[in-house]
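User: I'm preparing a small set of examples for a lab meeting where we compare how different chains pack in three dimensions. I only have the primary sequence for this one, and I'd like the structure in token form so I can line it up with the others. Please keep the answer compact; I'll paste it straight into my notes.
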Amino acid sequence: MNKQNIHVFAKWQVTAGEIDTVLDCLPELAEKSRAEAGNLYYKAYQDNTDPNIIMLNEAYADQEALNAHRNSSHYQDIVVAQIVPLLKNREVTLTHEL
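Assistant: Understood. Below is the structure token output for the 98-residue chain.
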């Protein structure tokens, strides 16, 4: 079976007044995500025109690595429990390189 890297593009629209809380969570989330065995990179960006928009660009060695990331304690504790409740909208696109 041919395993392909999985590239994740996520767009978080943070609820007005909550951006500082989300930004405070990102360093720990990024550090722990980058330390995962199957993580290739984890980058976070803030929109230049709308500071309540956060874009994430991540890559994982394969589906197993992505699953491990989503099931990790730091993902569950930081993203699911702390960040998602502060989002107005969340879009996640999974891709592979051509």
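A couple of notes for your slides: The helical segments are 19-34, 63-71, 73-83. The mean pLDDT is 97.

User: Perfect, thanks.
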